[in-house]
Amino acid sequence: MTEKLINYKSSRTGWLPLAGILSCLFLLGLAGCADLSTTEGQLRHDTNILLEQQLRDGEIASWTIPEEPGTERNLAVFLTCTEEKRLCRYYYTVLVVNGRPEKRVYGRSCRNYQNNWEEVSWVINDDPAMHRRIQQRYNELLAMGKGAPSADYTDMYRLPALLSKNLGRAESKYKLTLGRMIENASMDNRINPLLIHAVVNTESAYNPRARSPVGAIGLMQLMPATAGELRVDPHIPEENLDGGTRYLRQQLDRPGIKGSVPLALAAYNAGYGNVRKHGYKVPPFEETRNYVKKIMALYAGQ
């Protein structure tokens, strides 16, 4: 995942410009963070809206308000983890006044037992261990998704030479329009077709008859139980692709993953439970780590 700035629509301001590069560097370097100098009610309002938008780890929201000229507010999620069986998120805030950052502040919010986000607790914190933990988490996310395109659907993509060669060979051998099938499944499930090509190539080398020793079937190596839950016949190429692509979409949309391609791939391979168990990181399984690494390399065109 690369660092990403998003616009935030404040109820008082409308859409506003993205933060400048200097502010990003302050935030990403964990230097010069500050409390949001606003009323408690407005801070709670702004933060809760951002929580509802489900910012991902490493994602930054930036906004200003007319009442505070020269002041830019930033909010970023740097760590998603499980604490006492609840999903929690740690945040950093950056208040930049006339180009200069102020004191460092971080916050935490957890889902309560009704599965709603609690209000964020903001605290000025100088704990070096916490800063190292957050910086390490961000660096991991940055390294996992480095150079990769968005997971969102697009028709503007080009297959790397390896994928194009393997696709052409499989279409000729099996007399199937696999490229068109992948395009359709990707469009229906709002996923970048290049990502599905990378998964299919890694799972089966575009072989619709592939069968693993543990019983996974077809192009996207669906287990019979998973195919049953998705209500598809994994032996039919179109249904296999639709089911596998829909299943990957489900992983991308899960709490704690929310759009992270490496984590969604890890969940596809090892199960969402294992991703959650290991603090929303790629589980420490050699097979899963190699799987994610291989697909991300194809997806990033490396």
Topology:
Blueprint: E1 4-7, H1 21-28, H2 40-52, E2 59-63, E3 71-83, E4 86-97, E5 100-101, E6 105-110, E7 121-123, H3 128-144, H4 161-174, H5 178-189, H6 193-204, H7 224-230, H8 237-252, H9 261-270, H10 272-277, H11 286-299
Parallel strand pairs: 1-2
Antiparallel strand pairs: 2-3, 3-4, 4-5, 4-6, 6-7
Helix pairs in contact: 5-8, 6-11, 8-9, 9-11
In N-to-C order, the SSE pattern is EHHEEEEEEHHHHHHHHH
Q: Based on DSSP secondary structure assignment, what is the total number of beta strands?
A: 7
**Tally of domains:** 2
What does the overall shape look like? Answer: elongated
Computed CA radius of gyration, to the nearest angstrom: 21 Å
| Tally of helical runs | 11
The pLDDT mean sits at 77
- Poorly predicted runs are 1-43
The CA-CA distance between the termini, in Å, is 15 Å
Strand count, sense and barrel status of the largest sheet are: 7 strands, mixed
- Helix percent reads 40-55%
Structural class: alpha+beta
Percent range for β-strand residues: 5-15%
Give structural notes:
The chain is α+β, with helices and mostly antiparallel strands and 302 residues long. It folds into two domains: 4-144, no CATH class; 161-299, Lysozyme. The protein contains eleven helices and seven strands. Strands 1, 2, 3, 4, 5, 6 and 7 form a seven-stranded mixed sheet that branches.
